[in-house]
Structure formats: C-alpha cells, structure tokens
Amino acid sequence: MKFLLFASRNRKEILRDPLNLAFGIGFPLIVLLLLSVIQANIPVSLFEIGKLAPGIAVFGLSFIALFSGTLIAKDRSTSFLMRLFASPLSASDFILGYTLPFLPIAMAQSALCFGVSFFLGLQMNANILLTLLVLFPVASLFIGIGLLAGSVFTDKQVGGVCGALLTNLSAWLSGTWFDLNLVGGAFKTIAYVLPFVHAVDAAKAAMAGDTASIFPSLWWVIGYAVVILIMAIFVFAKKMHSDQI
Amino acid sequence: MIAIQTKALTKRYKDRLAVNALDLSIEQGELFALLGVNGAGKTTTIKMLSCLTRPTSGDAFLLGDSVLSNPDAVKKKINISPQETAVAGNLSVKENLELVAGIYGSDAKTAQSKTNEMLSTFGLSEIAQHKAKTISGGMQRRLSIAMALISHPRILFLDEPTLGLDVFARRELWSAIEKLKGEITIILTTHYMEEAEALSDRIGIMTRGRLQDVGTSAELIAKTGTKTFEDAFIALASESEVDR
Q: Which residues of chain A make contact with B83, given a CB cutoff of 8 A?
C-alpha cells in the first residue's frame, strides 16, 4: 500500500499550490459566469446553462492534465523522482500514486462547477450524478495526457503543451463556446476525430437524462483514455529504467 | 567485510564512455569519496550502484547482492541523496521525512518516531512544520540527507552534498556527515578537494571515466611527491590527460 503514501503526497502537492486552485477551479468558474451573463443579455439560446455547465466541466478537467504533467515533470527535474526510483517503490506504485489522487480532485472540481451552475439556473436532479459518472473517463483521459506529457517534457514544456495548447484545443474543439455546425467543414471533422467534443456531447446527454445518446460519444472518450493511459504507463515505465530520468 | 565490490563496471552512452571498467572495493563503515572534475563519471557510478542506471557491462555487488540480478534486494539496503536537493516542496519538513520512512516500510507510528529522531539529529526540529520549498538551501541539503538516512540504510550515497552551499552551511553539513562515519558505508562524490580530504577514509580519483588512483589523502600526496592534496589531485588528473 506504499502507493497510498505516494498518492497522498501528490494530492498535497497539488492542493497546496494556489496557482493550481486559481487555474483549475477559479478560471473555469469565471468563464461559466461570463458566458451566463452573456446568455442573459442575448435573445437566442447560445449558452443555456444545461448545456453550458457540462462543457465548462470538461474544460475544467483539461487543467488536470496540466497539474499532473507539471507535477511529474518537476519531480523529474528536481531529482525527487530519482530519489524515489532508488527506493523500493514499484512501477505500479508510481502509476497509481500519480493517477489516483487526481480522480477525486477532478470529481470535486466538476461537482463545484455544477454547484455554481445551480445558482445560475441548473436543475439539481439525479442527472447530475450521472453526468459526474460520465465525466470519470473524461478525467482519466486528461490524467493520462498529463502522465504522458510529464514523462516526456520539462515542466516549462508541459506548461506550453498542456497549459496553452491542450486547454485551448479542448475549449475550441469541444462545441462549448459555439455550435461546431456553424463552422462545419474541416474544423468540424477534426473536432469529431478528437475526443473533446465527444466528452462534452456525452456529458450534455447525461445532464439531459438522454441515456441513449451517452454511449456513442463516450466510447470515443473511453477509447482515447485507454490508449493514452497505456501509452503513458509504457513511456513512464520506460523512463524508470532509462539513463535520463 | 566488503560493502561494495565492482567488477569492470562500465557505462557507455552512445559514443561516450562515462565509466570505464571500474574495479573498486569498499569496506563496511568506510566513508569513500569519489573525487573528480565535472564529467569524470562520479554521478554515473553512483547511479549504477544505486540501480538507477543499468551498467553496459560488468557488475557491482552491494553487501553481496548484484545490481544486475537482484536490484530489489539492493534497493532495500541503500538510500541516496541526489545532487539536487530532491525534496517535495509543498510538503513540510516533517511530512517529507515521514513520506520516505513510509515508503521504506515503516508504519505510521515508527515513521513518526524516526522522523523525530532525524529532526533532532539534523537540527531541523524548529522548522519541522515549514514547507520544504521555503527553507534555506543549506537546510534543504540537511533535509535531503536526513531523508536518505531515515530508512537506516546500510549504504548511503551522497552525490555532491555541499554543492552550491556557502562556507558556513558546508561546514555544518560536514559535521553532520562526520557523525555518521563508521556507522554506515558512505560513498560521497565531490569536486571539492578539501571536502574529500576532511571527510573521507579513502579517496578515489576519477578522470574521464577511469579510476585513476585510490588511497588516503596522505598516501596520494606521498605517491605524487606533492605538498598538498590539491597538488596531488592535479598531478594524478594530469597523468590521465597525458595518457590520452
């Protein structure tokens, strides 16, 4: 059960960093509030809360990749990971320790997003729990991306890849800010090849109680999550035994 | 009894030979310094001995266990304080120590008791609740060594333990390291002559991946016919340059 000790350390590292809290929780909530204010002042239904909240929840989860990637990359650059690689911790202890603490953080982040959305008009019912369940594989996907990026890049590079590129990709290509049909063409095709819009579609379906529409989209997310997690575990395990940690 | 025995231990990175057929024998309880300029192969040697890097050829035995065939057994007997301070910045000093104790198998109560022992031994009690990233470089080094010692290793690797410290912090750390002498086997890498001379029982001089010579500082001075240990080091390191 050594992974629990390591997981606890990782949880503390994340939650004690005020920047993480500001970006991971504060920023998505500000976007949620802003778009809700815009919705209140326009005649068409563009950012209706029932559809906006799941989109913002997915957008918020993209920051989990930044947290986990930065943590791992920093552990590498400060030689903290070298210290632990020389200890009796196994590869599975590392993988579990770096992934498990992010799941409750991700769920708490989404729950907070829905809590704030309640004050903006979101109806509280069992669909919220279903949506949280749907967001579980989405969180796993972003955790996997973080583990992969942290194993390969420096902490500054992780900031660029996960902090700038990934959060923007998951925002623009998710259909949260605008209907992808409005753009169409290659943009829409690319968006539907990537998992972000599928994550938002699945979450929106869950929020609407449309259980039949959840799975076609969620399969995409689960597929991406499985492939990326396997890749991340492979790369991390390889890094453990490589000359350059 | 021999704590560390290396047999033609070699590490090659593509076309660069980092460590070249190292044959070395270190007794239990000995404080052995590996001295050399940057790129001499000191850190690579430590990485191989602590199972962080696999040797290209040769082998090393730590208290009888091979780093190649039984690294798990080796890892239970050793600990390392890397060149960088390698502490968890957002954890308190106390939490850092308890984490490492737990990872090496201590239950919560034992980890707490070992932590208190280390806090006291290394003069860290007053800053026990401070976040590791907020304490001074000297204190971080002390914490790093305390983290390496909390598992009660039989062999301890200290990679450039005083790098970047001011003279006061360095002397304080020397005093802490001196207290460990005789109790556990310590391999210390450094490129500070005075550090190797002051702390170690024997010194191995590495140049360009090779172990150029081994002996006490007095033996190396006598061997080279020089007046100071620094001169002896330069004479031995220069031999390597001439041999190239």
A: 79
Q: How far is B187 from chain A (nearest CA, A)?
A: 15
Q: Is residue B243 predicted with pLDDT exceeding 60?
A: no
Provide the pLDDT for residue A123. Answer: 93
Where is average pLDDT lowest: A177-186, A204-213, B99-108, B210-219? Answer: A177-186
- Residues A220-227 have a mean pLDDT of 98
Residue A213, domain member (yes or no): yes
CB contacts < 8 A, A to B, total 73
Number of domains in chain A: 1
Query: Is the pLDDT reported for residue A208 higher than 70?
Result: yes
CB contact under 8 A, A243 and B82: no
Tell me the pairing of strands B210-215 and B202-207.
Answer: antiparallel
In a domain, A52, yes or no: yes
CA distance A245 to B84: 13
Partner residues linked to A60 by β-bridges: none
Nearest to A79 among B13, B86, B100 (CB): B86
Q: Can you give the pTM of this predicted structure?
A: 0.91
Beta bridge partners of B176: none
Contacts of B99 in chain A (CB under 8 A): 5-6, 9
Q: Note the pLDDT of residue A240.
A: 85
Q: Which of B19, B48, B54, B103 is the best residue to mutate to test the A interface, defined by the most A CB atoms within 10 Å of its own CB?
A: B103
Containing structural domain, residue A236? 3-240
Contact call for residues B66 and A49 (beta carbons, < 8 A)? no
Which residue shows structure tokens 């052995």? B32
Cα nearest neighbour of B131 on chain A: A16
Beta strand pairing call for B57-62 and B65-66: antiparallel
Write out pLDDT tens, residues B79-132. 999 988 899 999 999 999 999 999 999 999 999 999 999 999 899 999 999 999
Instruction: Judge whether A245 lies within some domain.
Output: no
Does A152 reside within a domain?
A: yes
Q: Where are the beta strands (DSSP E) in chain B?
A: 2-13, 16-27, 31-35, 57-62, 65-66, 78-81, 155-159, 185-190, 202-207, 210-215
A155 has a pLDDT exceeding 60: yes
